[in-house]
Amino acid sequence: MVGVFDLFRIGVGPSSSHTVGPMRAAGSFVQALADAGSIRDVASIEVELFGSLAATGRGHGTFTAILLGLEGQDPQTLMPEVAQSSLDRIESTGSIQLPGGSKVPLGVDDIRLFPKIVFDRHSNALRLTARDVNGSVMCAETYFSVGGGFVVREGEAVAGDDQDEECSLPYPFGTGAELIEVCEREEMSISAVMLANELATRSETEVRSGILQLWEVMQACAHSAMNRSGVLPGGLEVRRRAPDLRQRLEQQDEERNPRYWQEWVSLIALAVNEENATGGRVVTAPTNGAAGIIPAVLYYVANYAEDVAGGSQEVIDDAIVRFFLAAAAIGALIKEHASISGAEVGCQGEVGAAAAMAAAGLAEVLGGTPRQVENAAEIAMEHSLGLTCDPIGGLVQIPCIERNAIGAVKAISAGRMALWGDGIHHVSFDQVIATMRETGRDMSSKYKETATGGLAISVGVNVVEC
After folding, report:
1. Sign of the dihedral through C-alpha 120, 121, 124, 128
2. Count of alpha carbons within 13 Å of 315, Cβ hemisphere only?
3. DSSP count for the chain of H helices, then E strands
4. CA 296, CA 277: separation in Å to the nearest integer?
5. Taking a C-beta distance cutoff of 8 angstroms, is the pair 26, 70 a contact?
6. Which of 20, 36, 65, 93 yields a CA-CA distance of 20 to 30 A from 218?
7. Tens of pLDDT along 146-182?
């Protein structure tokens, strides 16, 4: 079962499926060579990208992510300044340094692209081939980056390397209906059910400290963006707005009047996604393209939520932990029964999923019943159905950054709206997940992270990043 630390990971921008996933795939590839004791015999490596990875890989940082992964870098621990130093060296030398091996000639321009070849398994596919000095194939693997940083190797049924060791969970659930049934039978909240399942593989201290570390990275991400001016990289000349917006808000709202909550929430979402667009350190939540929604709603929890804002640090931390746990329960259901990949179902699987998770987390900390929490997720997802993924120039900037701000406000509205009712509603969360999946299947490929439709072609740009 997908857990909290599967859905929420520390990584680098700008994309979980196009940056984090490919980096992890490349790292897995060289690790296999090292485990086989043959990495020193590698003379060349071929990199081939297919489908969406080929179509928008340059703007999404896929090419450089693979080079860093082949050097053994891990997105969980990689710092942006280290990445840039390594990429400068690769560009100047035209070669990469395999971990424990030799230098191999390979650069961005050597990567082969096949955007029109789409595999049945997933449209985010990459193939890596290592050859020895005689040109003989030593190892060849095909990987699929299926969203949220999850990677599946061809032949695997699931993303096995992402899962903890198999264990028996005290409260397994496979659908939203089953989750509600468990909660009501055991008289537990959704966050309590998720915590009990997490404790099957970790101590409570580890769960709590791990979640609070994620929250610290989210806050640091927003803070970094609010202190950086100029334009975002990539050629679109998108101006960073976070510093000016923060300064304006601090002047107008010196005493943190609740009537400004929406402006502050939007600022946090914009800041996180501006940082993501620069390749900064972010938390995949559940993707990088939608990374600003959950930290923005968490900011609302810590500063404006009843019985939380103004409380002790322990009260705030407890709310943050319960928020993450409830959000993860919703994210797990979406990933298992639909997708969190924009290349597979459009942005409804990224911003829509994040909004549903955030709405559930908010309803949980505001004292919602399990049915109200499920209703909150359903409202947010229902009103995200059909969202396309059509980034201009193949960059995670327009419409992605503003879409996160709108998604965060939508999540808060959904969470609070669900609390107005008794949890009884006509459309179940299971039904809206199934609808999202079918909508994604019916959606034209040009609206699924290929930069061949929607805003990506309707808005003229002078830069081609994909």
Report:
1. negative
2. 12
3. 18, 9
4. 17
5. yes
6. 65
7. 988 999 999 887 654 444 456 789 999 999 999 999 9
d(CA 65, CA 71) in angstroms, rounded, equals 10
Question: Can you give the C-alpha Rg of the chain in angstroms?
Answer: 22
8 A C-beta contact, residue 108 and residue 83 = no
The top-level CATH class assigned to 16-162 is alpha beta
The two three-digit tokens of residue 135, written as one number: 């040109």
* Mean pLDDT, all residues of the chain: 94
**pTM greater than 0.85:** yes
Task: Decide if 78 contacts 12 (C-beta within 8 A).
Answer: yes
**How many Å apart are CA 184 and CA 443, to the nearest integer?**
37
User: Could you tell me which of 7, 329, 333 has the C-alpha nearest to residue 194?
Assistant: 329
Which part of the chain is CATH 3.30.1330.90? 16-162
Give 282's strand partners.
11
CA dihedral of 358, 364, 370, 375, whole degrees rounded to 10: -40
Burial of 410 (0-12, 13-18, 19+ CB in 10 A): buried
CA distance 66 to 76: 15
Closest CA to 451 of 121, 51, 15, 17: 51
The identity of residue 342, as a single letter, is G
Residue from 431, 3, 416, 421 nearest 211 by CA: 3
What is the distance between the alpha carbons of residues 330 and 53, in angstroms, rounded to a whole number? 27
| Short-list 386, 376, 393, CA closest to 326 | 376
- The span from the CA of 126 to the CA of 137, in Å, is 17
Residue 60, both tokens:
């999404």
Single-letter code of the amino acid located at 197? N
Please report, for residues 108, 210, 359, the alpha-carbon distance to residue 96 in angstroms, rounded to integers and kept in the order given.
Answer: 11, 33, 44
Q: How far apart are CA 297 and CA 274, in angstroms?
A: 17
44, 79, 316, 358, 445 from 24: Cα distances, Å: 19, 15, 33, 26, 25
Place of tokens 């091996």: 101
Residue 10 has which token pair? 């520390």
- Tens of pLDDT along 413-455? 999 999 999 989 899 999 999 999 999 999 999 999 998 999 9
- Residues 358 and 334 sit within 8 Å (Cβ to Cβ): no
Reference 8, options 259, 459, 321; nearest CA is 321
